[in-house]
Amino acid sequence: MKPSNAVRNERSRRVSTTAPAAISAPPGLERGLAPRPSPAESLHVAGFGPGKVILLGEHGVVYGHAALAAPLSRGVRAFGTPSERTSIEIPSTLSGDQQDALERAFARAAKRCGYPPISVTLSSEVPVSVGLGSSAALAVAVAHVLLGAKGLTEPKPKQVEELALEMEREFHGTPSGVDHTTSARGELILFEKSRVRAVPSPKPLRVLIAVVGERRSTKATVAALRERQAKWKPRYARIFAEIGALSKEGAKAVAKADLEQLGDLMNMNQGLLSSLGLSSEPIEKMVYTLRGMGALGAKLTGAGGDGGAVVALFREPEPAAAKLLAQGVTCFASQLAGPRAL
After folding, report:
1. Which alpha helices (DSSP H) does 113-194 contain, by range?
2. What is the pLDDT of residue 39?
3. Can you give the pTM of this predicted structure?
4. Which residues contact 319 (CB under 8 A, 6 or more apart)?
5. Which of 106, 102, 72, 114 shows the shortest CA–CA distance to 87?
6. Nearest to 310 by CA among 336, 330, 337
7. Quick one: which of 236, 121, 120, 139 has its CA closest to 180?
């Protein structure tokens, strides 16, 4: 998936997934296919998974500390139509590795759902490989479709989260869980060791997201950091703990409508992430550009590394977004929480 119109269906390839051939099929069914109802019994279904932004706490959350995360207004949509087989159209705009990962992830989710007779296509507005939870949004959208095809037209959030996590494990190995949980719940949350608490926001919480370029995979960035922290555990443990403390302070600041304090916490979090070797020259340049444009706080969001995205807290992000767009920067404004204008 590429930024903006990330998922296209032109020249995409469709892959089917079935139960293993070793499974005995009932009489009348093709060997190797799990028992399933007629396609006529299935409904057209659709699902949406919003992208996510981590305001505070990335990387610390991998080690059990708190993170403050919110859903974006942009996301991934999945559409399901009745079919003889369980299949998904793999977008040609994905890299070869990404296509393979999606095929494997879909196979895992389809198996868990009993291979419902559904054909899935995708449409996305979330840039890929920049730290905005594109894989989690995709997993949540696909989970809604597979569960809907199975007959759960209004699945419980926990069911969606469990199925999406199955796909995220294929994408990232050992994900913290914050991405797909934020996408599935669709609200600002404080996430810590799989404990989730909704965070109320009496004021609109508005941000600008600026993309500074693709980066290496989250799995690679997390693995490299894990090697460093294993070598110098006490020092890294102190930094992770402080990142978690900032996240909890941030949740309190949001609840008190103290945007100035939240912005300061974001700036401090950026400094800690930089000390962990997770920032880069393009990220730092965008962080300081946004602060110079009036952001209350700005930091990298997601895994970081050599590229990714920067999130900046504004009272009114639209003027800054317009200036950056005029300069050719890929960016957009999003309200994460709080009351919305009618």
Report:
1. 134-149, 157-172, 178-185
2. 41
3. 0.85
4. none
5. 106
6. 330
7. 139
Tell me the CB-side half-sphere exposure of residue 268, using CA atoms within 13 A: 17
Q: Is 1 within 8 Å of 91 (Cβ atoms)?
A: yes
Chain centroid offset of residue 115 CA? 25
CA-angle at 159, arms to 157 and 192, nearest 5° = 60
Per 3-state DSSP, what percentage of the chain is helix, strand, and coil (rounded to 5)? 40, 25, 35
As a whole number of angstroms, the distance between CA 39 and CA 82 comes to 5
DSSP 65: -
**Tokens encoding 320:** 């800054």
Residue 341's pLDDT is what?
58
264 counts as catalytic: no
**Burial of 201 per CB tally in 10 Å (0-12, 13-18, 19+):** buried
Strands (E), 99-255: 118-124, 189-192, 195-198, 205-213
| Catalytic position from the list 100, 179, 264, 306 | 179
Residue pair 31/296 in contact (Cβ under 8 Å)? The answer is: no
Which ranges of the chain have pLDDT less than 70? Answer: 1-13, 16-43, 215-216, 341-342
At 115-140, the pLDDT tens digits run: 999 999 999 999 888 889 999 999 99
Condensed to tens digits (0 to 9), the pLDDT of residues 283-306 reads 999 999 999 999 999 999 987 877
d(CA 142, CA 303): 23
* The pair of three-digit structure tokens given for residue 216, joined into one six-digit string: 């290496």
pLDDT for position 26: 31
